[in-house]
# Entry
Amino acid sequence: MTQETNVPNAKLTRRTVLGTAAAAATALATPFMRSTRAAGAVAPKGKMVLAWHSNIATRWLDPQQHDGTASGDNFLMALHDALIKNFREVRYDHPALAERFEFAEDAKSAWFRLRPGIKFHNGTPVAPEDVKWSYEHYRGASGEVFREKTQGVEIIDNRTVRFHFKEPFLDFPILLGTANVCGAGWIVPAKYYETVGQDGFLQKPIGAGPYKLVSQQPGVKLEFEAFEDYYRPVHVKNLTMVSVPEAATRLAMLERGEADIMYFVPGELIDRVKNNPKLMLAPVVSGNWWLEFPGFQDPKSPFHDKRVRQAVSLAIDRDAINQAESGGMGQVDGNWINDDVEYALPWPKLERNVAKAKQLMAEAGYPNGFNVDWVTPVPNYYSRGERVVAQLQSIGIRARLQVMERGVFQKKMEGGLKEWPGVQIIMNATRIGGTWSNWYDSMFKCGGFQARDFFCVAELDDKFKQYLASYNANERRNLAEQIQREILENYYFVPVFRHAFVNAIGPRIVGTKWQDVFPTYLTSGYPYPWEDIQLKETAAAEK
Amino acid sequence: MGQFMIRRTLYALVTLFILSLTIFTVVRLTGDPVTLLAEPGARAEDLDRVRAEWGLDRPWPIQYLAFAQNIFTGQLGKSFNYQMPVSTLYFQRLPNSLELAFAATLISFFIGIPAGIISAVRVNSGWDSFGKVVALLGLSIPGFWLGLVMILTFSVWLHWLPTSGQGGWRNLIMPAVALGWYFAASLLRLTRSSMLEVLRSEYVKLARLKGLPGYVVLAVHAFKNALIPVLTLAGVNLVVMINAAVIIEVIFAWPGIGRLLYEGIFQRDFPLVQGVVMEAGIMIVVINLIVDVLYAYIDPRIRLTR
# Structure
């Protein structure tokens, strides 16, 4: 990566702490990079409609309020842009508004050089002051982490900013650049935001993304128009995102040509899409599902015995669950952490062997099985919980399914073990971007947001502390892999499968395979980059 | 009359107070909305930040006072999800709901009242049996099923009508029929029974004995009198259709108040749910109050009784 002469980084030793991220990102992105001049060469035309699967929350239009969910980034990617972001195969550090960046060897600073001539939708240039303001005023998910670790943001010149950290901040680029985790790296026009305030910004948001918002019906519909000053070519002139909560209606829209992309095809409608030659399924492999045993450390719990946990693993028919729940389009592998995050440990598919499971149950002193008070799946995926209950019966584990509303489930998870008395199995799931440590920190660590006092394996938590304190990439990788290996070998968690977020594509969109329309599928369930989606000639010419 | 009106107004205010307390409590019993505003893996500090930002860390009585204050100022609070005043959202959606509700009411009138009259006039005939079947189907077929079947038939197969959304009169047909059919069935039953009762009355017999033509007896003497309970029911139906057409509005992606309520419940958006329920409650209470006063004005016996 060429060093800019006006970037004062003499004190920084060049090397990549987190791999050769920027260089690799630039290389990978080369076919997709365009200059501003190239953007002008494409005349956006036609209209594309996305049938969104729930209501549209207005707060998703403001990156300053990023709630850490994987929903908001669908809208951010159209309306706004970030310094760096996940983009196609690049997981978090693809240069976007920043044409180049560097992370210091000691992980205590980072600088970003903005592209020349980039603008917001209102015509004002994207300036380092906007970067500084957006970062310093960011109050969304993970905002506290940035505030705690950042010493200051320095404007070096009219295109360059440098971030100074109080201590080594190794996760900085991952957090900054993963659109479905955090919005601190997404740039809003500072003066405009200050003038209109948060509420005014939500009514008329202005960004620097490929599409500008033309009108909105809160919760119902967003109408965008191509931003022709964007630094990459935007192919479709008008983009409409319309909220259609009912899946059958969304599919009818796609079949009739009223929509071009629909999100979330439920299992019962998958065959209808498959049988329609004009439509294409886009099964984006998404979050991981696993079984966990809160309170297994208690010697009175049957799950205290590793052999019982292993027997549970051996009794689960993962392929059958994948087939029934995701039309076979999910992924059955061995780890409970998605393989699309940093330091995720590849693990072979777990064996199913009911005879061996029964033998282990007998050796553990449960030849006739035992009762489990409740199996509780993450709401509202109750049918997969029912499948687990049925499969456990094959080794004598008699369980009942517990269903609850999502908010109640979350509240109970936050409450820790006291909320889960008796013998319990939770069928948990998540999709967290960035790095494996986000998963461990939230889902397993003693005191973690969804782990609380459920597991508390002191030895692993100590290793995790070492991991967090280490600045050595090799040591961090080793520790990450050790921790994951021990969780899997001891069956503290029993991975089930990665389900598929099944979408569908209509006949007006250019693409021979679904990955052409969803090229960022490694990190997102949505069809980024929006500006790359093209309509067929006949569709683009329609009025 | 003055005392009667004061008494009724006080009843209405007490009703609204109880409603506000009930809805305030019920939405909070469903749990903490913050968990729906953040991702499943959100950090505890992120949740605390959101909780404080929305005032959910304050005691319930303080939260109720803020809610009550918002009712009096007409703002009804600010939606968690949309970050807009609930009253703005409500009044943005109200015209859409009115449009749908009036269209559905017209459909229910055009189907329910003539069919009810024919059933009553041709009682125990084939027409009557047909009317009974229509009423039975209307009351028993779920609106969501009817809506989906209509979408498949008229949009996907026949390509006659758009599937959903708001756009023009063609977008209105299917949701209005799906919503109106249930109410048409109830109007049919009420019109039939009301007409049967009136047709057996002495003054209708007298009109016939006077030698008046049958259509005059029906139109002038029977129908007008039979219409009073029908119109009362239609008024109540209209309020229900405006505020609670949740399923039809969701199926047809119709941006009305019912869908707004659904979105509020789904996201546990306390201010939104409270606001929509209060607006609906105020609408019903005010309409009832007006009807009570009108009845009392027409019939002095009503205002003289407690």
Summary: The first strand of chain A starts at residue 47 and ends at 52.
